[in-house]
## 1
Amino acid sequence: MADKFTLTLPGDPEVQEPGSIFFVGTATTLIRHRGFTILTDPNFIHAGDHVHLGYGITVPRLTNPAIDIEALPLLDFCVLSHYHGDHWDQVASDKLDKNLPIFSTAHAVRALKLKGFRRLYPLNTWERAVLRRGPERLSLTAMPGKHGPGFLDVALPPVMGSLLEWGEGADRFRLYITGDTLLIDQLQEIPRRFPDIDLMLIHLGGTRLAGVLLTMDAEQGIRAVHLIAPRNVIPIHYNDYPVFKSPLEDFLREVRRAGWESRVHVLRHGDTFTFDRLAREAAAPVAEFSER
């Protein structure tokens, strides 16, 4: 696979073991592993503030982020699944460093360029970027995604899932982030190309506008988990806006029916999930099902 972008980051890696996922809220997480610190889908407005979802539609946030944007650590880069207000809000536009590297869709990159961001890297499905810091290497591959059914999809922003991959062979750790996709046929290619995924961050919520499903609900979510078959699953993007119509408990009910309790880890805002880069040696299940 050819690399579309290669970035060399300054400094020596401060390797952190175990790795960690800090859940800020919505689809916003802080991922730290092997010397890299990554922000996903920055959404830092507070409860009662509104975001724009396109075509004159605005919705209020129901929750607060676990931290304010000023409390973020020094970031290496940001991964943005798509350009919607609940994934990139005005706070992010105003307060993130304009030199922060951002990987996203071409549509999102065009929008962010107009807002003054300078280090923008568009990826099409299956294209890959490689980031290096000293001896450490991290690859980011764009995964397929689709935000709406049929003809409606052309009226919605393009969506990118992401696969983050550290190391090679026995040292490899794979993290898959679905982005705001529905369960589409193209997802079947992911386990063929990238088997043995260690951790899956799944965007749920069953988002509906005018009754149309735009993100995975509980039923699609559990089918996606069966398809990808990761060792660990963290649900995100499920309770922050009134357009999220499929509550987390519906997904957890499907998890229990499927017998996946030991692989699914529920994070509330401000919770951290830690993982080891050699988690595959433990084999699933690796931890107790928790609803913290």
## 2
Amino acid sequence: MKILVIDNYDSFTYNLVHLLNELGEDATVWRNDKFELKDIAQFDKILLSPGPGIPSEAGLLLAVIKEYATTKSILGVCLGQQAIAEVFGGELYNLERPVHGTATKLVITDENELLFKGLKSGFDVGRYHSWAVKSDNLPSELLITATDEKEVMMALRHKTLDVRGVQFHPESILTEFGKEMIGNWLFS
């Protein structure tokens, strides 16, 4: 399996790569502005890393999703999830208070979501964000798969494409079962 990690200039990117390595997979890492879209065709799966700012400021991030959502398995983390939502017509909002280095309980809202296979609601996830995807006007082709206890969207998926995202950081030490979630995506 060939995995591409799009690095959105974030210090957590290589923690994701280490998780992939622990699961027996190697990954190629490209910065979000240091490649050509056509070069992604060789990969089977694309992991969109966290990063600072908003998706429109993240190099080719939005273009990658637009170009490959119909043919590749894509998992977005934090900024990556936000980018997925925006590509399909979702909107972001600025949280009243940034959530950085905080663990909150995950409420799984879609028991069929492959990321959460074998897991139950109520485990901790590590959060590092000041933006989130709006739930109230989510496009019909996207489905909320998890929230926090205050109903802030924590995960989503496309209803027909192999495209999903998480707002939290599976690679964070604050997240329980991060390795299991990444494994569920890899080996589905």
## 3
Amino acid sequence: MATRKITIDVVSDVVCPWCFLGRKRLEAALAMVPDVEAEVRWRPFQLDPTLPPQGKDRQTYMRDKFGTGGKIDDIHKQLTQLGEENGIVFDFDAIARAPNTLDAHRVIHWAAQAAPDTQDRMVGMLFSLYFEQGQDIGDHEVLVDAAASVGMDAEVVARLLQSEADKATIREEIDTASRIGVRGVPCFIIDQKYAVMGAQTADVLADAIRQTAEGFEPGISEDR
């Protein structure tokens, strides 16, 4: 069977644990459809663009957002279990900062210009640094080191981060996502035709990819 080519635009924020799960499940889904060649492109979204550039203490931030009851613990427990099922070792206790992700999205944007797979590896690196290692992915030194680890020019990235380069571009992309109806992440836009909302299972994603590649409209649940 001839290989069919499609694009998958993933609207995501690198401080969204569901997006980390979504990336792992997308990897599994693509392995289930070897006759489909997918170009995965990561698109920016900010769960909280109001965070200051230096971020906030995460414990305080989460308490302000979810309250002081057991809701946070319940969410973390659920995500930890789902992470184990998908090859992710969430370490929420290690996360000290709730970062503003604008600069992280700029680095992801630049990674797409480096090499075909560099952007995806950069996204995976940032997810792991934040959720598994507790590093502050709003910190420029962390971002530069991450960029270097995936083969980007560290000096260029460091210089660009000190400038306003592509901040307007990232904000415009986020505004565009909102205009087309993206209200939560992850959102998988397949071949610029169909949207799969939420961290769906690999089976659901694979079916959507397969049906889109074959020219059918997939029926997709919006539940996580």
## 4
Amino acid sequence: MKVYSVINIDIVKSRKIKDRANIQQMIKQYFSTLNLKYKDVLVAPITFTLGDEWQLVLRKTNKSYELVNEIKKFLLSKKIEIYCGIGVGSISTNESNDTREMDGEAFIHARKAITMAKTNNRFYNKEIHTKYCRVILIGNPKYIMNTNVSNSYDVAQMEVAVTIEDELNIVDIINALIQNNEMIESKFTEKQIEVINLYEELGTYNEIQKLYPNMSKSSTSHKLTASNYFLTVYNKQIIANLIKVYTKLLMES
């Protein structure tokens, strides 16, 4: 069975955004660059579906959260926030160059996921456990204790240790890590975001100091550490690994 990832994204309070036509045009241009960058990952070009909602279909499911974060980072630089629903599963139609011509389990999961991401009332939303998270992944449950994961995967690759008797759903673990990340990133200050962007662009403290002599290596290190940036990077690596493992389990079922 082939397994895909479908990502539905919508703008938070889109009707309150001024100059929506120009914003949409800017987003379309940005998506054109993403379509090229991720041409080996995307089944079809990113599609505008309903109003300000977009849809992505990925053949490499482990890239899902990476792509979400790339889009989120770009839009946050424009003061735009998003809801995101990720669905992982099969597709019942042939692959198409238009996401609207495809359908199946992954699409159903993605639609359910974005609906849940938009549910602000935590009493009714049992899947998201922090008000700072607008991203959720939905898929059929796969339990670690019900599979021979230890025989198929290196424990370090799983990045999770089972220390309790209860069965653990991999989807729940992925969402817990996503929510942890989203909560941490929601607390980044503007100055921390500026330093993080420089670090991600230039790669080392030395390169930052060369271009910005007033930013010492110790100051840069302190800001990155204080923001818990390195924890978010590690979480993203774990999430990608877990989605890869989860996808293989779905393919084998």
